[in-house]
Amino acid sequence: MLPNSKTFCLHPFTGLATREDGAICACCRSHPIGFIQDAPLEYHWNGEVIQNMRRQLLRGERPKECEPCFSLEDQGVESLRQRHISNKMPESRINLYPDALSKMRHDFTMPFEIPTIELKLNNLCNLKCRMCHPMDSTSWNDWSEVKEFYKAEGNIMYAIVEKHDLENKPHLDNFQDNPEWWASLEKLLPYFRRVEFAGGEPLMDPQHYRILDMLAPYGDQIEIKYATNLSMLGKSNRTVWQYWPKFKSVAVNVSIDGMDKSYEYVRGNASWSELINNIKQIQTIPNISRIVGAVTVQISNVLILDKMIEYFLDDLGIVFHSHRVEYPRLLSAQVLPRELQVLAITKLRAVDQRLEEFKLIKQHPELLAYTRGQIKDNINYLMARDQSDKWQDCVEFNRRLDASRDQSFTDVTPEFIDYI
Prior knowledge:
Blueprint: H1 11-14, E1 15-18, E2 23-25, E3 32-35, H2 41-45, H3 48-58, H4 67-74, H5 80-84, H6 93-96, E4 116-119, E5 128-129, H7 143-152, H8 156-163, H9 179-188, E6 194-197, H10 206-215, E7 223-228, E8 234-235, E9 238-239, H11 240-243, E10 249-255, H12 261-266, E11 267-268, H13 272-282, E12 288-297, H14 305-316, E13 319-324, H15 338-352, H16 359-363, H17 366-384, H18 391-405, H19 409-412
Parallel strand pairs: 1-4, 4-6, 6-7, 7-10, 10-12, 12-13
Antiparallel strand pairs: 1-2, 2-3, 5-11, 8-9
Helix pairs in contact: 7-8, 14-15, 15-17
């Protein structure tokens, strides 16, 4: 039974997350609770910050570290917190760890027996997605063209990129040579039930394969999960074919932020045909528990979101999931001219009426309510705030990247022509 608290979240009681710059967080959405450069993982698991977070969440208060989730909830969008205290998904933490609070001590500390960890270990990546930045990818080599926009909106990523001089030294890695980090990970191996990899791009990261080697002796009790661009399936003898069968199951969230030309526009350096081929290949691996098309909804794909939902569910046979660009704010779908926001909402409502026709919904009827929830979240988000006063800055931001990347804003989304 969940505590009687309107703000309760299971994440600070069941896991931690790392960020490329060495930040330790309660989850992949939260603000940092500390840095691996300052103290070992054991300290952060029971440090003053997370103790206070646990206390506040049990008392119905909103910890400042949890602001990203509460901001979405205030806009009528289901947050990561809400998803994991609901039992509508098998991987919800309330389903995975129903007795998690039983180990908590009176001072809000807990044994160093973390069942889930979410790992971003460095920014090594072969793509340069529009909504990313140098902390997310070593391929982001045109930061100078748009960094002033990040600075103007007070975006924390501007300060991080400047602090680590990522414009000139793009590779960011605070874990590889940290012996305390690897010692902490070694202690946790018997307790892991779920290990999640993101990046950067985990499938091209040697540290990711080093961790899989460490986890393999316990593989029959561990599900591994990925947030991956799936542009590759490994290299040499380090491929998914060698590693994934060693584990209880594998969940794959594939970042797909468009279709064909719009996909390649948003995810610079990517190939649509290679992506589709790789999805079809991993669909043949027996212990894959699910493949999810994870869409970062933004100005360049929200007008084709209806087509993406149909393609995922009816042709590709993968689950549709979405989250929304919050920064840079200029790429948020809320920045579109109001007429285009209304058009996007109209298209989403129309595809919602057709969901029961799609093959994957017929095969897995439980996905109907889930997909409808995803559609509702995006409609609510579009209706929550009108930031169209930033549209001209959005146009300029994209024009600068277009010039650097030899791309065209309006070729991909012709609906924009009348608004620029």
